[in-house]
Amino acid sequence: MSNDQLTKIDTVGGVAIYSVSGTPKAFVYKAGMEIDADGSPRAYGPNNSGIDHTANGGDPGPNPNPWWGGPTNPDGSAIVQSIIHPHPGIVRERCFASKPGLRP
What we know:
mainly beta; 2 domains
C-alpha cells in the first residue's frame, strides 16, 4: 500500500485514522499492543526468560516478596517446572495444565 492510497480522515486519542482508496472500503491505523501471558506454561521464567516479565507474577523467591502468579511452595516461592514438564526451569502458572498421567 502506498501513501497516495491513504487519506487521513480523523485522529482519535492522538492516533491518525486513514481511509484506503479502492474497493472494498478499508480503514487503517497504527496501534500498540499489550500481551498478558497468564495461563501459558511459558509465562514466567528466571531473568525474564518466559514470554512475560517475571515481575508480573511477583518475586519468585521466598517471602516476604511472595509469588502471586501461580502455585507456591510452603515458603511462598514459585514452583518451577521439572524435567517431566513441557518447559523445565520455567515457573508454574496458575492455569498450568499438563498431560494426563504426569505429576504436577
